[in-house]
Write a structure and sequence with these properties.
With 216 residues, this protein is of the alpha/beta class. The protein is built from ten helices and seven strands. The strands form two sheets. The chain has a five-stranded mixed beta sheet with strand order 2-4-3-6-7, with helices on both faces. Strands 1-5 form a two-stranded parallel sheet. Helix 4 runs antiparallel to helix 5 and helix 4 runs parallel beside helix 7. The N and C termini lie far apart (37 Å).
């Protein structure tokens, strides 16, 4: 996707020096990650998951970014049926891992906002931000989107700004990104089924991999 159309220059606002440095590192790292492009499978610190509990027979891991157009498309066209078939039935544990893509500042702020919303609303926020990518292409700024989403989950403007400039939270996100890169992830969305990368992210491709593991 053309990330240049997705945002004007987005700034976190009044960051502390440490938070600003971390944000700059995220932006630089994001320039190396591509929307559309590898490993992972073991439980990792900070994992957000749905479906079967940890230790399930089958674990599906998605590395994704809220600013990735391919991720948003997968979320809209594949996720509903995949969720109904495997996640809602507790056949698999679905793990979502954050991997910001350009504009990395926007993606990082979106991920921090989702975590500040709480575990019960985390996926709601992720999905809403992804769905809002259409707005950015029409000229609505990502900053306006994030502010609106923050309000929808009950955060005040001050709480929202504190959330996305929290130095410790930014450092923790940075560690999760580094862990993904250490696993060989270079782009999003990237999927693994029980630790094996599945290049075909269609429902058919993922189902084939999941069903093969369930049949063992």
């Amino acid at each position: 996707m053309s990330t240049g159309r997705n945002t004007a220059r987005f700034r976190f606002g009044a960051m502390s020096r440490r938070a600003a440095l971390t944000g700059a590192a995220l932006a630089a790292m994001g320039a190396l990650a591509a929307c559309g492009g590898d490993s992972g499978g073991q439980a990792a610190q900070g994992d957000m998951a749905k479906g079967a509990p940890e230790g399930a027979e089958v674990t599906v891991v998605e590395y994704a970014s809220v600013t990735c157009g391919h991720c948003a498309q997968w979320q809209e066209t594949v996720w509903p049926e995949f969720k109904a078939k495997y996640v809602d039935t507790n056949k698999v544990r679905f793990v979502f891992r954050e991997f910001p893509t350009p504009p990395a500042e926007v993606a990082a702020a979106g991920f921090l906002l989702a975590r500040c919303a709480g575990e019960d609303r985390y996926f709601q926020v992720i999905e809403e931000i992804m769905a809002s990518q259409r707005e950015w292409q029409q000229g609505i700024s990502p900053a306006a989107t994030l502010s609106r989403v923050a309000t929808s989950v009950g955060l005040s403007e001050d709480e929202y700004r504190a959330c996305i400039t929290d130095a410790d939270a930014l450092a923790a996100l940075d560690e999760r990104i580094q862990a993904g890169r250490a696993e060989g992830v270079t782009g999003t969305p990237t999927f693994f089924v029980n630790g094996t990368r599945v290049p075909d992210s269609s429902l058919q491709g993922l189902s084939a991999a999941v069903d093969a593991e369930l049949a063992k």
